[in-house]
Write a structure and sequence with these properties.
Strand order of the largest sheet: 4-5-6-3-7
Number of strands: 7
Radius of gyration: 18 Å
CATH topology: Rossmann fold
Strand content: 15-25%
CATH superfamily: P-loop containing nucleotide triphosphate hydrolases
Distance between the termini: 51 Å
CATH architecture: 3-Layer(aba) Sandwich
Shape: globular
Oligomer: single chain
Order of helices and strands: EEHHEHEHHEHEHHEH
């Protein structure tokens, strides 16, 4: 049976809302629409597993974990927290993962750079109404699979912390799959540099570990190696 509609032809997309199940729609047209709606930046549009450069065992392991998530979906209960230094391909793998989820399983996905998301919220701010913020955050809350890129990159002000908490807790409570990337190493793997805990706080770090599988990628910045 189809895991989304149980062969009824209709699937729930929101409370009291149904749509024609993805299994009954024209696959190629739906793939094209889902890729467009995913908001993958043009810089990463060509990212795939086939052109990801594997230089060490941590990158090989990361590819395996991402592909396993695709293979097992929708029977997965955790997303991914992909951390590592700049230039090791964290965003590349996150994009490759959601592209294949779209192309192979017609899963609605959404990509957001966390800093860009914060800017969109700020630019739309209306002191007389919260509707503008909710309009931007609603797709982030509701996306079946979300990539939140560069978590921790923004200066951790109280407003940034509140926004992170709101997004992460909402998706956690709704059991939605989220793929996070971050340049900040986990507290358990870093003793000298600023850590993910320093950027998001201990409570959110704990929540991230509960809702995601930790994927640590090591290596040198491949963009510098190409010069």
């Amino acid at each position: 049976a189809c895991p989304y509609c149980q062969d009824t032809g209709w699937e729930y997309v929101a409370e009291r809302t149904v749509q024609r199940c993805r299994c009954r729609q024209d696959p190629q047209r739906r793939i094209e629409r889902l890729l467009q709606e995913a908001r993958i930046p043009p810089r990463y549009a060509q990212c795939g597993f086939e052109n990801y450069e594997i230089r060490n065992s941590t990158q090989q392991a990361a590819v395996y974990i991402c592909q396993r998530l695709i293979e097992d979906y929708p029977n997965v209960d955790r997303g991914l927290l992909i951390i590592g230094p700049c230039g090791v391909g964290k965003t590349h793998l996150a994009v490759a993962t959601i592209k294949e989820l779209i192309q192979k399983k017609l899963v609605p996905c959404l990509f957001y750079d966390f800093r860009d998301l914060l800017k969109e919220i700020q630019d739309s701010y209306d002191p007389l109404s919260q509707e503008s913020e909710l309009r931007i955050l609603a797709p982030v809350y509701e996306a079946e699979v979300l990539v939140l890129d560069e978590l921790g990159a923004a200066k951790p002000t109280e407003w940034v912390q509140d926004t992170m908490t709101q997004i992460i807790n909402t998706r956690y409570n709704q059991k939605r799959i989220t793929i996070f990337t971050s340049n900040f190493l986990d507290a358990s793997t870093s003793s000298t540099k600023e850590t993910l805990t320093d950027r998001v706080g201990e409570r959110l770090r704990s929540r991230l570990h509960e809702m995601c599988r930790l994927v640590v990628i090591e290596g040198e910045d491949y963009r510098l190696l190409r010069r």
